[in-house]
Specification:
By secondary structure, this protein is an alpha+beta fold. It is built from two helices and nine strands, in the order αββββββαβββ. The strands form two sheets. Strands 3, 4, 7, 8 and 9 form a five-stranded antiparallel sheet that branches. Strand 7 and strand 8 form a beta hairpin. It is elongated.
């Protein structure tokens, strides 16, 4: 007799489950969290300013003899830009082409010489830029100051 009782109980259970599910409204879950914590790392913003002209010693010259010449730009002493951890010297020729980019923490990065060449190749206004950077550790990102810009006019 048990076999006959099961035959009507299974459809009844399924029907009851379907009716129950039809009556249940499905809605998205909502949650709200409120908490406040104090940051463990202090954060501040800093502005990198251009190097002050009166704190940088630059020597520059256009030496020529007959048809040959040489442009030279060298930075002696300079005061570090506040918050900067890297300083750069960039030399741009009269055609607007960057001829030199130097790391001013190294002696070789503080001076540029065009080498002896035809004086007509040197003719025009050479530009130098000195700026400070904050290079973010373990990253290729950096913040740069405005440059201190100067010129060298070669005849």
């Amino acid at each position: 007799m048990q076999g006959k009782g099961i035959s009507w109980q299974v459809p009844a259970i399924i029907l009851a489950a379907v009716l129950l599910l039809m009556g249940v409204q499905i809605s998205p879950a909502h949650a709200q969290f409120n908490d406040t914590e104090t940051g463990a790392m202090p954060v501040a913003a800093a502005k990198l300013t251009a190097p002050a002209a009166n704190t940088v010693a630059v020597t520059k010259s256009c030496d020529s003899f007959l048809w040959f010449g040489q442009a030279k730009i060298s930075v002696g002493a300079f005061t570090a830009v506040p918050y900067a951890n890297y300083h750069e010297l960039k030399i741009i020729d009269p055609d607007g082409v960057v001829q030199f980019t130097g790391d001013m923490s190294k002696t070789a990065g503080k001076s540029y010489s065009s080498g002896v060449q035809n004086a007509s190749n040197l003719s025009g206004t050479w530009t130098y830029q000195i700026r400070g950077f904050y290079k973010i550790p373990n990253s290729t990102n950096a913040w740069a100051s405005q440059p201190l810009t100067g010129t060298l006019n070669c005849p």
